[in-house]
Design a protein that fits this description.
Largest sheet: 7 strands, mixed
Number of helices: 0
Oligomer: single chain
Order of helices and strands: EEEEEEEEEEE
Length: 126
Amino acid sequence: QVQLVESGGGLVQAGGSLRLSCAASGGTFITFAVGWFRQAPGKEREFVATISWNGFTTNYADSVKGRFTISRDNAKDTVNLQMNSLRPEDSAVYYCARERLTFGGGSYRLDGYNTWGQGTQVTVSS
């Protein structure tokens, strides 16, 4: 069964950058759309970004548009989230997820995904 593993989280000052990576093991996500979501303490998990299975389509939450970039390298079976101009309100646990159906364009909805990583903590200090 495929497992997703996030990496790259950490502590950064406001205005700084981090690059998160999501890798698949025991399976693949090269034929699946992949999404990034985040969850801050006391808040619901929310959509951040998604990329279609072929990388042609990307979508972002309004709160991160212009600052975050999602990309994928299907040769390495990884999906990355480049986060620039970070703000304290970006602090959260970030999760990558594989979409439920193959060859999808990516969904904003949590229930569109059925395989989740364990999450990586991002903390932005002011």
